[in-house]
Amino acid sequence: MPSAAYLMKNFFLSLKTTVWTLLGLVVLFFIGSYLMPVHRNIFQPMNDLLLFQWVAGVAAENPFQTWWFFLSLAALVLLAINTIVCSIQAIKIRWSRADFLRRISPQVVHAGFLFILFAHLLGAAWGYKISGGMLKGTFARLPENRALYLRDIRVEADDRGFPKDWSADVLLFENNERVAMGTLGPNKPLFYQGAGIYLKSFELDPRPVALLMITRDPGTAWAFTGGILFVLGSAALLVLKWKQR
Amino acid sequence: MYHKQRHLGQSGCLLCLLSMEIALFILYPIALYRPRMILPALGLHGALIGAAAIQYGRIPLIGLHDTLGFLAFSIGASFAIAGWNRKRGLFSYITIPVLLVFLTGSVVSPVMAGPLPPVLKTIWFELHVILSFIAYALFALGAVFGILSLATKDRLAEADQYRVVLLGYVLFSLAMFFGAIWAYLAWGTYWLWTPKELWTTIVWLFYGLYLHARLVQGWTGKPVAWMGIAGFVIVLFTYVGVGLLMKSSHEF
To answer: CA-CA to B2 of 20 to 30 Å: which in A101, A146, B150, B193?
Structure first.
């Protein structure tokens, strides 16, 4: 009778585990996409809080609405282990018998996928997300001994009076010294040492107010590195398969 | 922010535009005779898209009119490349009607005239949308090759399905990457928990599943051909269904 360790190794090495886990994730996300708009009050804070804060504060208290999310997490953990084990095995076996690009490109895709998962893990646990309105000409205290000063808000209107562009001038201070300044706008944040300051919206009446968001996500660099690896690896795989015909 | 209007409501080139759109419905079916005869239709369609871009001063990929039209064009272009050496057959008989359905959807949908909202004025958005729709077109061809493989038991059709799906998957992954950059610059995060993002991930996971399933004994052949067809149904729901039924950051 095969040992438990042998069975476990075979389970994690199996491509069937990959296929069924992916299928499970597809089904779980399908259920999630239906439940999210139905229970908007539960899922809306997912994007406002760090994910683990939402898990501890909201999701854990509403298991009948969030069970699909917890099962998805479990499936992703299983898929991550499966990916790591299969990649190690593939490199060991194919190292001597296939050309470099053929043996490395699927593993680059896998590495990219793992980087993206790791990025989500980092972003879910660490960093911060703060948002709020600021009056023109006022200061706001930020984490890491920083403060933000909103110097000006400008709005450009079109012929019909609708705002067509908007911007806000800000100054960033750290330990009472000015460290950065810039103009915020749509798709134009100000970055300083891993933190981003965003102009989300604005109001001009009764007084000019900018709705700002300040975020720090330690997973971002990992996510983009993972994205690049994933695309490069799959493009290399594409070229190889195309040639193979 | 937008004027919602139909071509019929516009003055000036009204007759010219209308006649060119009608001409597409005559030119595209010519490809039923021979796939490479799709080129005149593609030329005219490309010119119409270019003219709209010049008229609005932006990429014409906002709203159902623009995007369905671009999807039809992308399917046509992919069909021309994939079917260049093919003769008249089931491949054309399925693809051209599918293309015409999307073109009809485009013609009857309202045009979103006017400039882009500021948040969409970025190259990352343009790359994200253009690549997404080219990938959707390739997934559509993947479904056509799936039907071909099931109907004719043609091994070559199965291989062609794999190749167009793999190319579509690479472009779709690139589109998601550009979308993530755009989201990070616009909203401070590369990922948002919304139904649209979940469905986009479903498409990504499902085609990842397709690419892995081909390597599993017992899944090759019919099951994989069916998966290529099911994948495009998921794509269609992600594109049209989620936009119409669920709220997300992708409503513009």
So the answer is: B193
